[in-house]
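Methods — Computational structure assignment.
A single polypeptide chain was analysed. Its primary sequence is given first, followed by the predicted tertiary structure written as structure tokens.
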Amino acid sequence: MLITQYLFTIGKYLLLMKRTFSRPERMRMFFKQYVRELYALGVDSIGIVLLISFFIGAVICIQIKLNIQSAWMPLWVSGYTTREIMLLEFSSSIMCLILSGKVGSNIASELGTMRTSQQIDALEIMGVNSASYLILPKVLGLITMIPLLVVFSTFSGIIGAYATAYIGGILTPADLTAGLQHDFTPWFFWMGIIKSIFFAFIISSVSSFYGYTVEGGSVEVGKASTNAVVASSMLILFSDLFLTNLLS
């Protein structure tokens, strides 16, 4: 019974995505919606991304210096480890998990409210492909902005590590710089970008599905927002395992 329910949900999701990825009927209106979603889903998230990444970069640098580095290790270990953690996992995977809570719940609640207030039904009556009109700009907008947020997150984390070096005196800026530059692999940067594109699609499409298909009133909208965050987070973790193994 449970497997049947999961298969039914996956089928509904795939059918919705088929309707979503159709050519917009009015490109001018689609572009306006796309720009609006760029601001609502991406630009509004820059502040929290920079803030969290700054402190995480600082904390990672401090923890590595105090708990791992010893007299037997080179002085640049803290900077090297901070860079690898930010590039490989935090700025791409963990940051997308955080954004799934902020952005995903926003998408699900917005579409759920439109469904319960019959705005989506009104679009359907007017002959508009509501899935493409409402969901496609969100998907493309988040796919555009998430890689930029990952880049901002990486640089903000490195700045946080430098703040630790200059203000906290945990290690010297020269040792931190040597660690950040040691044995740098450019592919690790691009791997985070590639993973973030997949995560952006998961967050936007899954959250849109739960919001678009909600049934009932305001209580169901709240449940749909929660389910959207939980489902997108689980899929991000699963796909992170698969993509890391594939791209490494």
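Note: The two ends are 38 Å apart (CA to CA).
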